[in-house]
Design brief:
globular; alpha+beta; seven-stranded mixed β-sheet; single chain
């Protein structure tokens, strides 16, 4: 792998869909880091996140949509007003989010989190 920033950005942008899942990870809140013995986890619809950077810093809400192609996460009630006064969802990069609560309704994801936490202990 190259160390050149330009090639790193190109590799990340053109990564296949299954690898973008891991790229689209956010840090966990401190209590979740201790509980699950991992620092970050891929963001998913239904997770509760806190915006850490930008104009919406401090906003806490659920993830409405994850766009892997453009590497953006859309959070509920994080919108921008357009010139015609309509509201449009505002995409945030996952590195600027902190996961406050994981959505463990999916049995596969719940098992994955438990396996990680067992390995870390």
């Amino acid at each position: 792998m190259s160390e050149k920033p330009r090639k790193q950005r190109k590799r990340q942008k053109n990564a296949p869909h299954h690898k973008k899942r891991k790229i689209m990870s956010s840090n966990l809140a401190e209590d979740l880091q201790k509980k699950y013995a991992t620092r970050s986890f891929p963001v998913r619809k239904g997770d509760e996140v806190e915006v850490m950077r930008g104009a919406f810093k401090g906003h806490i809400d659920k993830v409405a949509e994850v766009d892997r192609r453009n590497e953006k996460v859309y959070v509920e009630k994080v919108t921008v007003e357009k010139a015609d006064e309509s509201k449009e969802p505002y995409g945030i990069h996952p590195s600027n989010l902190k996961i406050r609560d994981l959505d463990l309704s999916d049995p596969w994801r719940k098992e994955k989190v438990e396996n990680i936490s067992e390995e870390g202990k």
